[in-house]
Amino acid sequence: MDFVQVSEEEGDEPIELPAEEDGTLLLSTLQAQFPGSCGLKYRNMDTKAVRGVRSNEGRLFPPSVDSSWGEYIYFCVFPKENKRKSDDNLENSTAKTKRIETRLRCTDLIVLGLPWKTTEDSLREYFESYGEVLMAQIKKDVKSGQSKGFGFVRFGSYEAQMRVLSNRHLIDGRWCEVKVPNSKGMGHQVPCKVFVGRCTEDINSDDLREYFSKFGEVTDVFIPRPFRAFSFVTFLDPDVAQSLCGEDHIIKGVSVHVSNAAPKAEQNRSHQGQNFNYNSGNNFGMHSYHHQGNHMNSGRSGHHRGNNQHNAHGSGDNPTIGNSHSNIGSGGYGMGGNNFGGNSGGGYNNSGSHNSGGNMNRQDGGMPYNRQNNYHGMNQPHNGNVGSGGWMNQQNRGHLDMPNLQALGINPQGSSSSNQGQNMNNPLGVGLNLNSLPMNPALVAAALNQWSLLGNQLQNQNQDQQGGNFLSWVAQNSGHSNASNMNNCGGRKGSNNPNSGSAGMIKGDNSGCNDQQNGNSGWSNQSSGSNSVDKSNFL
DNA sequence: GTTGAGCGTT
Questions:
Q1: Contact, A501 vs A474, CB < 8 A?
Q2: Is A256 helix (H, G, I), strand (E, B) or coil?
Q3: CA angle in degrees (0–180, nearest 5) for A299-A525-A394
Q4: If DSSP codes are grouped into helix, strand and coil, which group holds residue A474?
Q5: Which nucleotides of B are covered by protein (CB under 7 A)?
Q6: Where are its TM segments located (predicted)?
Q7: Which of A254, A307, A342, A393 is the most buried (most CB within 10 A)?
Q8: What per-residue confidence (pLDDT) applies to A317?
């Protein structure tokens, strides 16, 4: 009996696989040892090139005319979606295990928001472009047979599942969510998304996709608009994403920095007192977030970097519900880079020396310089969500650029938290859920300011508050917080009033400023040198 | 016949 020496990847120790009597090697024999493999290849010693092995109807044919497999060591071919970073040899030992594991990890996926008209056939048809669909069902009303607007799908491969989870889906004309059902306990999601800082405006999504595809399959590229000098790249393989973190890459001549797209921390449901002390339960095995006392650190790898409060939340789905965070106008428009919190419910420390940073929304792009503590910020830490998510549609539907939260293990449902629905943290106390307003939160804030709604409420919550409206409150607080903030921007040009955080739509000029930590308008993040950007709001 | 947050008569 002839044996064929096969290794998973070139250079690995080979396994001898028995060939059939006719000299062929059964694909099933190969797959018994190398699950997921679909073929063989070998390096031709003469040409130094890699040659593929002929494969037909479940059989692999020896390359030589005498039906001999020779002394070659063959290595496996895996479907493209299994392809790993080519130089990723360190993971060979785990790759196989991983494939086995991942095969076992296919789960039913719930598809929410389906059009009423979608049938199981059309649902299946849609998802078959991602891979083999083992099951597609629409939940219907028993009596009427009418669709309930959601359904389930199951894929044959984990790769397909991952791809589906990391993409958005336009099904029969409607944007739908695909999630792992009741996934609050799902802990296996690892971040596939990386934050790419120091982007320039001429680096478009195609550039990013093209560049990063050489490391692994890119499933999504997201560039916040208006331009904020960063973007997100999502890989199919979280290992690829992780392997790139911390690296600098040159794209179109520009040195960009890749870092973790800060995973949204576990929701702090306890909400108690002044102790804002949460360690994320979602550290994905690579970093834990120590948000202690009154300064939250957005730094990676558990380090306290920058000490700028940031908002780890604030996606369009407003996952900050039930948390002690706030966004007012986080995201692209309006107040953009700055989050002003209302701090209802006791929150944490409005009066101590360590007040939250003026720009709570800052997440560094990995620049090692010009990092300053920013404890002296507005006296309003977060709590309450005012218009979080900025321009994003609350349901994330219909927005082409909205990444899928669940790909990162973020479940916008808020799971069992009691604070679902109406925002319990609403600092306005005016019975408004600004998140539900389909408009620019900055405008909302400005409007409320006009109505003197914001200021009054905030006054009750902030002992430093001297009265006035919200905008003046912003000005005041960012005003006396600017000891650090102003200094961060030595190159500031005069056009931007750091106290005018309220001026949501004013385009700030912060060129030369690497740390925009004051009350600038959201637009000010457009400064070319800015690394003070918030990635978290786009996770 | 309407609707649009959710979690599945196996």
A1: yes
A2: strand
A3: 80
A4: helix
A5: 1-10
A6: none
A7: A342
A8: 33
Q: What is the pTM of this model?
A: 0.29
Which DSSP symbol is given to A56?
E
Low-confidence ranges of chain A (pLDDT < 70): 79-105, 183-190, 263-539
Distance A111 CA to B8 C1' (A): 11
CA angle A372, A321, A237 (to 5 degrees): 70
Check if residue A179 sits with its Cβ under 7 angstroms from strand B: yes
The CATH code belonging to domain A193-260 is 3.30.70.330
Residue type, A227: F
Q: Decide: CB of A98 under 7 A of nucleic strand B.
A: no
Q: Could you tell me which of A382, A245, A377, A395 has the C-alpha nearest to residue A306?
A: A377
DSSP one-letter string for A364-404: E-S--SS--------S----EEESTTTTS-TT-TT-TTPPP
Q: What is the C-alpha to C-alpha distance for residues A42 and A443, in angstroms, rounded to an integer? A: 63
Domain ranges of chain A: 3-77, 98-179, 193-260
Q: Give the DSSP letter string of A116-159.
A: TT--HHHHHHHHTTTS-EEEEEEEE-TTT--EEEEEEEEESSHH
Residue A43 dihedral angles phi and psi, to the nearest 5°: -95, 120
What pLDDT digit, counting tens, does each position of A189-232 carry?
567 889 999 999 999 999 999 999 999 888 889 899 889 999 99
How many Cβ atoms from other residues are within 10 Å of residue A304's Cβ?
14
Nearest protein residue by Cα to C1' of nucleotide B10: A137
- Longest distance between any two alpha carbons in chain A, whole Å: 92
> What are the start-end ranges of the E strands in A180-279?
193-197, 218-222, 230-235, 248-251, 254-260, 278-279
Structure tokens at A67: 């039906």
What's the pLDDT score for residue A444?
35
Quick one: pLDDT at residue A469?
Answer: 36
Which CATH number fits the domain A98-179, given the four candidates 3.30.70.330, 2.40.100.10, 2.102.10.10, 3.10.580.10? Answer: 3.30.70.330
Say whether A193-260 and A98-179 share the same fold.
yes
Give the pLDDT of residue A1. 73
Strand B and A137 CB separated by under 7 Å: yes
Retrieve residue A325's tokens: 């965070």
For A16, phi then psi, to 5°, come to: -90, 125
